[in-house]
TrEMBL record, chain A:
Record-linked CDD domains: TM_PBP2
Signal peptide residue numbers: none
Residues annotated as transmembrane: 21-42, 71-95, 107-128, 161-181, 202-230, 259-282
InterPro entries: MetI-like (IPR000515), MetI-like_sf (IPR035906)
Family of the protein in this entry: Belongs to the binding-protein-dependent transport system permease family. CysTW subfamily.
Subcellular location per the Swiss-Prot or TrEMBL entry: Cell membrane
Keyword set includes Nucleotide-binding: no
Keywords, in A-Z order: Cell membrane, Membrane, Transmembrane, Transmembrane helix, Transport
Keyword match Transport: yes
Alphabetical list of Pfam families matching this protein: BPD_transp_1
Domain ABC transmembrane type-1 stretches: 71-278
Protein name per its UniProtKB record: ABC transporter permease
Origin organism lineage: Bacteria, Pseudomonadati, Pseudomonadota, Alphaproteobacteria, Hyphomicrobiales
From TrEMBL, chain B:
Family named by the database record: Belongs to the ABC transporter superfamily.
Keywords per UniProt: ATP-binding, Nucleotide-binding, Transport
Single GO MF annotation: ATP binding
Organism for this UniProt entry: Shinella pollutisoli
Protein name, entry field: ABC transporter ATP-binding protein
Matches recorded under InterPro entries: AAA+_ATPase (IPR003593), ABC_SmlMolc_Importer (IPR050093), ABC_transporter-like_ATP-bd (IPR003439), ABC_transporter-like_CS (IPR017871), Mo/tungstate-bd_C_term_dom (IPR008995), NA-bd_OB-fold (IPR012340), P-loop_NTPase (IPR027417), Transp-assoc_OB_typ2 (IPR013611)
PANTHER family associated with the record: SPERMIDINE/PUTRESCINE IMPORT ATP-BINDING PROTEIN POTA, SPERMIDINE_PUTRESCINE IMPORT ATP-BINDING PROTEIN POTA
Automatic annotation (TrEMBL), chain C:
Protein name as annotated: ABC transporter permease
Family annotation (InterPro entries): Bact_Polyamine_Transport, MetI-like, MetI-like_sf
Membrane topology, from the record: Multi-pass membrane protein
PROSITE patterns, A to Z: ABC_TM1 (PS50928)
Amino acid sequence: MTATPLERAERRKAWAFALPGLLWTGLFFLVPFAYMAMLSFWTRQGREVVATWTLDNYVAFFEKAHLFKGLVVSLEITAAVTVISVLLAYPLAWIIAERVPKRWQRFALIMAILPFWTSYVVRSYSWLLVLSKGGVVNQALLWTGLLSEPLELSANRTGTIIGFVHFFVMLLTLTIYANLIQLSPNYRRAAADLGANAFQTFWHVVLPLTLPGIMVGAFLTFVLCIGDYITPQILGGNNELVLPQVIMLQLGRRADFPMAAALSLVLMVVVTLAYVACARWLKMERT
Amino acid sequence: MTADVSILNATKVFGAFRALDDVSLDIAAGEFIVLLGPSGCGKTTLLSILGGFLEPTSGTISIGGRDMTHVSPAKRPTTTMFQDYALFPHMRLLDNVGFGLRMRGMAKAERDEKALSYLDLVGLRASAAKKPHELSGGQRQRVALARALAVDPDVLLLDEPLGALDLKLRRQMQDELKAIQKRVGTTFVHVTHDQEEAMAIADRIVVMNKGRIEDVGTPASIYMRPRSLFSAGFMGEANFLPAKVRGLSANEAEVETALGRVALPASAFVSGMPAAGRDVTLCIRPEHFRSASAAVPTVSLGRGRITGSAFFGTHHRCHVAADGTALTAHLPQTEEPEVGAELDLRLKADSIVVLQDGAGVGH
Amino acid sequence: MRRLTAALSALYAGLIYLFIFLPVVVLVLFSFQDGTLPVPPLNGLTLRWYEAVLSDGKLMAALGNSLLVAVLSSALACLLGFLAAYAFARYRLPASALLRGLLVAPMTVSTLIIGLGLLSVLNVTGLRLSLVTVGIGHVVINLPLCFAVIYASMGGHQVNIERAARDLGAKDWQVMALVTAPMLMPSILAAFFLSVTFSWDEFIVAFLLSRFDVTLPVEIWSMLRSGLDPKTNAVGSLVFLVSVAFLLVMELAVFRKSGRSS
């Protein structure tokens, strides 16, 4: 179909509007990403990057235990955090949506996410105050005499998971609440009308209807959690490192950019697989 | 201000779909034209081409004698009143109505005064400081009208502006629209699918179907002397009776129908006398079955039996079976038709219209 | 039965709220610690850690840097996002779905990878790391968000409103400035403030792409190396306080607005 003069002018305008954003994303996201993908197949001699095509970095990832273990630890922690966070957040979201009077709900919700507004770095740090050997929890337990030795709550996997769960319980409470509140009360009335008790109504009606929202929140948790460096770095100690920590390590000590790039691509692949796994829940559409 | 509009061989193609197919139409200055047709008939496409929101694939549009085919909406002497009113939600009514004047560089004081006078025209002067969301549907519609008229266009294009209103309000707005059009004298081109609305406001109605013009004329001529089957069927109710032309003479033709042979005056053949042996369709309005006075020439289609009847206030609408043909007849409200009763199917000869298949202005 | 569920609900909510607030309360409480360790026992209350924070030139500079980067990068991200959203919502562009996918793609990629990619390229180009490079990275992170939020709010019903403006003689920039942008202001503001929040709190890109001038999270990070320190508590409490105040103002402003229009 041939375009009329006005249509051609309109199309030029459309490109003029779209291009700045597209160029920005292309130049500062796509190009670096492509370069990094290339880099992951190169190698390093001393501090210099050498452009020779090789799979060495990926082979090393699978062969060297300290690299591969990063992925395993990341997956284990992320899975635990996602499950625990959903299980803790759903009841809270439900209580806010169902039990709290309407005009207090907004307040209850804001309170539930208020600690979001501390700095992310500070939030992990403040868990250190709570969980460390001399921290609030251990001191309190020792003081009451319930313990004779302080618990190992930080500088290990427990610390990392608690720190993560704290953040994601807030996030998930928000998303699940938004989901619950959208449900028409008529679904529940209809179920009750047809003889379902409170539990049956929840199990057969409310839960399935909110499942898409839960999946979106869980996916978000997975992606943010597996890519995070700060929380494990502050709360996790030195015994086991997650993948982002391993990546940062390549940069710091040895400036091994090709290896860092290869590990980043591994991280990307994992996230992409997770996306594919729950893609049918994650349809983003324009309203 | 006002201007005439001339559309010549306008065609608009979207991919494989011909939304507008070789349409030509002349509109006189100050005329109230209604484009009437079902959804997808091309009426809105034609309006968009007049407004400059679409360019025709071929053909030309001229307004006031100037070629406007490739001129942008802003530079045309037209304004459009949109179906959803398209009022600026963040502006007061005064600023909505004054927007076009502001774009033309008019100073604030002058433009406010003019905007107020147009709000006055539609009876909303007192609400000038309100925002659109504070208004009812009918009020928004008036603001949209005032806004479109405030820039003094030569031609106002109205895209189903009454579609969102309830029936009573719609009838009231039709009268107001017509009165305002007479006052300002602007050429109005109004799109609707409501044939009653078309009859209520139009100087001339343009009946459209499948991207073509089927019929053009005053409401009375389109109703009484439709020039296509589609036009006859779309404007009110009609009985269609297939027939074959048998005998021809200078001022009469004899046609054969399932209900017998009838002789019809030449004036019944709105699209010219057909050749003998041609298939034609008789178009009979249901209310014409009741005008069997002896003073004028009549034709008879025999007798029918009433199979069902309902009272419509102004008339009884009856289903009639005659020799296996189902007809609809409107009987006067004073009669009391009974199911099973016989009906004399006699009507004025000049009330019948004979249409040839495939007839229509644009064909 | 009903009472029991109510009691259990209250108990559960109470425990989770305790969990949520525990670190914040401890953080704020021990920012007043009259001692050098922000852990029990609480020796007494003092404001000297706040004094130390406010008189710390590096911290204050980092705070200024953070504000600068957050506001400027968010404004740019909003502008680019708005223009792109306008193009994709109002015109038919070839490969529209693919290009929109490209625009939101950074949202699905970990910020660590975005930062690393930019760092690798910057190393090659020899561009020096500075607040500008941090800002570039933050626009990359926030552009998808701004685009998505604004694009989602560009409904079809606004098309006729813009047409009406054009029909009444408005030029393209007038349509955008006088009609489209004001009409979409709620979502543009939402996108802007979300961006500011993210940029303000972003660590990893700011860490990777800055050198001498750093943002607040990076500066706080370097404070952490000295271990537990009531001064860190004080900074954290201040950030929290300011953020909550900001949130409160926003909430009240938005609430008042929605109250008026309904």
